[in-house]
Amino acid sequence: MKSQKVWYITGASSGFGLEITRAALGNGDKVIATVRKDPAKLEKSLDFHPDLLVATMDVTNESEVNDAVKKAIDHFGRIDILVNNAGYGFMGAIEEATNEEVKKQYDTNVFGVLNVIRAALPYMRKKRSGHIINTSSLFAFSARPAWALYGSTKFAIEGISQGLAAELSSFNIKVTAIDPGYLLLNF
């Protein structure tokens, strides 16, 4: 018999996050799905699934992240698979991007991932098992005009993922960076 996994998925309101949430629930697993706003909308779109817990959280707010992870642990007792999916793509030439725009891109796509990892990892390490999946991008390896800043955040995720995998191998925790390419986010 298949054992039920507990997924923690950031950025679950649309796109990959929503589709991963649907797939995990469809596979008979439990899911903590995080959204920045309107959790009722996600719950309704997933037919108020009994194995779904929706938490409101902005990955750039460390206290919200810690609270949401604790809520997940209190509700399901563990996190088996952490999917760092929350992020966004800022498009613009490097010389035209403001310092504020660049910081916002990094706060979400890099420091937000680190916030979630630091909050969830103690629970996974204590259990001595788990899998962390970080959403990177093909642009981490092949930046395009107007996408260099976004690509640089995803290049950082690649480095973090590689280093984290080495740090966690003795704890039986795997780390994977997924690198989607061009796609239409019209799920």
CATH class membership? Alpha Beta
Helix content: 40-55%
Helical segment count: 5
Structural class: alpha/beta
CATH topology: Rossmann fold
CATH-level-4 superfamily name? NAD(P)-binding Rossmann-like Domain
Estimated share of beta-strand residues: 15-25%
Describe this structure in words.
The protein contains five helices and six strands. The protein is an alpha/beta fold. The protein has a single domain (6-178), classed as Rossmann fold. A six-stranded parallel beta sheet has the order 3-2-1-4-5-6, with helices on both faces. β4, α4 (99-127) and β5 form a beta-alpha-beta unit. α3 packs parallel to α4 and α4 (99-127) runs parallel beside α5 (148-168). The chain is globular and about 50 Å long. It starts with 5 loop residues before the first strand and ends in a 9-residue tail after the last strand.
Write the layout of secondary structure elements.
Layout: E1 6-9, H1 15-26, E2 30-35, H2 39-45, E3 52-56, H3 62-76, E4 81-84, H4 99-127, E5 130-135, H5 148-168, E6 173-178
Parallel strand pairs: 1-2, 1-4, 2-3, 4-5, 5-6
Task: Jot down its keywords.
187 residues, alpha/beta, Rossmann fold, six-stranded parallel beta sheet
Please provide a brief summary of the model.
45% of the residues lie in helices and 17% in strands. It is of the alpha/beta class and 187 residues long.
